[in-house]
Amino acid sequence: MQAAAYEAFFQATWDLPWVAGAYWWKWFPQHERSGGDGDDGFTPQNKPAQKIMADWYLRTHLAETLDSEQMLHGE
Question: Could you report how far apart the first and last alpha carbons of the chain are, in Å?
C-alpha cells in the first residue's frame, strides 16, 4: 500500500512546476538495519516504496545527464 501511495504521489505531482520536492519521513542513518519486512513504521527504507522513489529520482538524473550531453555535443 505504501508503494502504491508513493507511485500515486509521483504520478500526480512530477510535472507540477510548484512542486520542488518532498520530505520523506522517516529516513534512518543506519540504512541497512532500517525498515524492511515486518517493519510497520513509516520509513520507506528497504521496502517496495524505496524502489518507487529510486525509479522516479533516477529518471530525473538520467534526463539531466542526457540534456547535459546533448548540450555538450551541440544537439
Answer: 42
Where does the pLDDT of residue 11 fall: very low under 50, low under 70, confident under 90, or very high at 90 and above? very high
Cα–Cα distances in angstroms (integers) from residue 49 to residues 62, 72, 74, in the given order: 20, 35, 38
Q: Using an 8 Å Cβ cutoff, are 22 and 8 in contact?
A: no
Compute the distance between CA of residue 75 and CA of residue 67 in angstroms, rounded to an integer: 9
Query: What are the sequence ranges of the domains in the chain?
Result: 45-75
Q: pTM score, two decimals?
A: 0.74
Cα separation, 44 vs 56, whole angstroms:
14
Cell numbers describing residue 68: 547535459
